[in-house]
Amino acid sequence: MNVQPTTNALQEKKYIRSNEPVFWGLFGAGGMLTAFLTPVMVLVTGLLIPLGIIDADHLSYDKLHGFASSWYGAAIILVLVALPLWHTLHRIFHSLHDLGIKRGRDWQQVICYGFAFAVSVFVFTLLLQMLTQ
Amino acid sequence: MSTQATHAQQAVVDKVIEIEILRYRPEQDEKPFPQGFEIPYHPDMSILEALQYIKDHLDSSVSFRWSCRMAICGSCGLMVNNIPKLGCKAFLRDYYPQKVTLEALANFPIERDLVVVMDDFIKKLEEIKPYIIPERDEKCLSEGTYQQTPEQMEKYAKFSMCINCGLCYSACPQYGLDKSFTGPAALALLARYNRDSRDAGSAERMKIVNQEQGVWSCTFVGYCSVVCPKGVDPAAAIQLLKVESSKDYLIGMFKPD
Q1: Does B177 contact A100 at a Cβ distance shorter than 8 Å?
Q2: Which residues form the domain of A31?
Q3: Which of A18, A22, A97 sits opposite B210 (nearest CB)?
């Protein structure tokens, strides 16, 4: 005689752990950076330099190239590009849900986080190239 | 003198406020429809009292839930001008002379008029094991009570004030989009027990928290905490649980269960 599997009501409920903590962590870190640094960047590049309060030479190509070619400069630029990017794409992914776009949630996730991942890797490779030149 | 007083009284009574109720009687109405009423306005009259006036004097068929009249029972939740409120805690003086629109709580199926079906909410409250799970349950009564310092109580007291009125579910856009979300009140209550020093059931409850339908359906809109009539702040409870869930995720990477 076959033993009947226990009925659904008696079965222990299956809990599936979400991978969201990874993306939420990157989202939080990126959001913090964006909130603190965007106003500073707007102030420096949008007001202080055009008004001549800060000498534009400080942000010349050679100076920035030199900064990006140092290991600490490269690390700072990678963090400044990658984290806000993960923040933005996480927000876009959840906004798609909020707008009621239910089709292809898996693909939405792959495209959103995939883009953030691809650009992060691209920037990392680029900076590494500049460092080892 | 007395005629003046009567006149003044008359003037107050003469003030009329318009109240529109979204009616739905499943046995005769195909879909909900608005019905207008005009009732005498008093500045100290609550929305719940206005409904009682309508039921007593104008239309006895209007259905709504209520019990305590003092924001303790959590029965009279409804949408007042599209904002989730307790009928007993919202007053006509805050709307007069404008019209007041009353509807059943959003995000819940309407059972009849202003009465909603709360089964899903109740099921979620039960699911999160809303009771103290002691470390060893063989502790004898003669051994005394589980003691707690004021600091230990402070950690969860705020999240224990919930009266299960459902206003936060009505306010939550994420619950509106996806009914599988555990939701604000249930997660706040879960946080209340997880944060209690006498409780040892955290590991069991974290399984609920860690799911997509647990804390991770929340996008921190925060409207739940705005509408809460008891100042529970479910949004904060959920954010704290997200941090706990992230820690749990890290531990789970090295120590899978």
Answers
A1: yes
A2: 22-132
A3: A18
Question: Side chain identity at A124, as an amino acid letter?
Answer: F
Residues B93-143: tens digit of each pLDDT: 999 999 999 999 999 999 999 999 999 999 999 999 999 998 876 778 888
- Which residues, including other chains, have CB under 8 Å from residue B100's CB and lie 6 or more apart? B17, B18, B19, B20, B47, B50, B80, B81, B92
Distance CA B218, CA B182 (A): 9
For chain A, which residues lie within 8 Å of any Cβ of chain B, measuring from their own Cβ? Answer: 15-18, 20-22, 24-25, 94, 97-98, 100
| Distance from C-alpha of B100 to C-alpha of B78, rounded to nearest angstrom | 12
B2-116 CATH pick, 3.10.20.30, 3.40.718.10, 3.40.50.720, 3.40.50.2000: 3.10.20.30
Length of chain B: 257
In a domain, A117, yes or no: yes
Q: Are B211 and A98 an interchain contact pair (Cβ–Cβ within 8 Å)?
A: no
